[in-house]
């Protein structure tokens, strides 16, 4: 059962989520839970469920608010495995007796020569190379369950694009929150000007990275599994006045936006406190699909969407070559509070500079003089509809009853209008003809 994705909420009505006060919520093994409830019934009728895993098979914690027995649930302590993982790392890297390093992909454990025997029938990677060890995402099997880790890795072009942006913005420290391949890439290619720190739910990184660059972490509730790692992380946040830190995140697309935004706020606050800076949001890069724009902007209007299409190497639909979106390319974009004019998109890869927008946009995104912007969101070339007063997807048809362009012919106008969002201002409850922001 997928209860918690944003799209489900939109369809099924109003499943809300309470995450601000989460440290007071009962805990599952993945930290404080989130409180889910229906808008018309209120939090008392809601339930607490795991912040990280969106499937009961992956984390079975699910307790209705009214069944919460404080003694039973509130003070439950879960065993922290971080210490054990770190002990395995120490042994793995200790070369006093054995130098060779191996990995069992079946059991997901690093091994030395004398550990190999019980794994002889398993899928083994013997004698890991230095390059493998420098970036474990080069050989670890991605955990690509969409209701859990949803581990999809950037392709090389995306990594190079991000590197270019970070250079241009003169970033000197980066937090890779749920971005292990980016972390691996940057620590190997950019270490003389950029320090990277990885925050991820995947405990396997314990084996390859020490506490100076990795913390086992849940970004949906800002939870560190290990206190020692949290302290090291706080040290990493401390910057000199000449340095700049950027927070980069690529969460699973099934994650709700509210808890992530909450975490971004908490981390910004912590960063400012540690550095004795006035309140200001951190520069953030957030990779997410273009169709989530409304949810991100509803919570945080400072985030704008950049036209760059982000590709993954191990996801069929989320690449330019994927079958589902082949015509329009990957639907994955970069959302950021950094002014879009500061980002340079690669001209040889389907992008151009639009002098009127004063930023780079996709080649197919033609500037509309009436809307005064390059309007496309999804990679198609939009056309301007004079009746709607805005640009729309090319295959939309203007409906005389709805007074707007719609996707489906023969739709039920009453039902359709009730659910729609205005394409000009993004709000619900009216459509373009009645929008106060309409220009033409
Ligand atoms: C879509 S992948 C992003 C990887 C990125 N594209 C890269 O190549 O570096 C999501 C990553 O976030 C991690 N993750 C998933 N849920 C998380 C959570 N609740 N907290 C922290 N990390 C999480 C996964 O383990 C995975 O590494
Ligand atoms: Zn859990
Ligand atoms: Zn094994
Ligand atoms: Zn333009
Ligand atoms: Zn237009
Ligand atoms: Zn129209
Ligand atoms: Zn409007």
Highest-level CATH class of the largest domain: Alpha Beta
Low-pLDDT segments = 8-13
What percentage of residues falls in helices of 4 or more residues?
A: 10-25%
Largest sheet: 8 strands, mixed
Q: Strand share of the residues?
A: 15-25%
Q: Helices and strands: which structural class?
A: alpha+beta
At the fold tier of CATH, the topology name of the largest domain is: Rossmann fold
Q: Tell me the distance between the termini.
A: 45 Å
H/I helix tally:
10
Annotated CATH architecture of the largest domain:
3-Layer(aba) Sandwich
Bound ligands, named by name, code or SMILES: S-adenosylmethionine, zinc ion
Strand order of the largest sheet: 13-12-11-10-14-15-17-16
- Count the beta strands: 23
Structure overview:
Its main location: cytoplasm. GO terms for molecular function: rRNA (adenine-N6-)-methyltransferase activity; zinc ion binding. It is found in: Cytoplasm. The chain folds into 3 domains: 15-67, no CATH class; 76-128, no CATH class; 156-362, Rossmann fold (3-Layer(aba) Sandwich), CATH 3.40.50. It contains 10 helices and 23 strands. The protein has helices at residues 6-12, 70-74, 82-93, 130-134, 156-168, 180-189, 227-237, 257-274, 293-299, 413-419, and strands at residues 15-18, 27-28, 31-32, 34-38, 47-49, 62-64, 102-104, 109-111, 124-125, 173-177, 195-200, 214-218, 223-224, 245-249, 284-289, 304-306, 332-336, 351-354, 359-362, 383-385, 390-392, 397-399, 404-406. The chain has an 8-stranded mixed sheet with strand order 13-12-11-10-14-15-17-16, with helices on both faces. Strands 1-4-5-6 form a 4-stranded antiparallel sheet. The longest helix is centred in the middle third of the chain and has 18 residues, at 257-274. The model is unreliable at 8-13 (pLDDT under 50). The structure holds S-adenosylmethionine (SAM) and zinc ion (6 copies). S-adenosylmethionine is lined by residues 52, 149-154, 178-182, 200-202, 217-220, 250, 252. One zinc ion is lined by residues 104, 106-107, 119, 122.
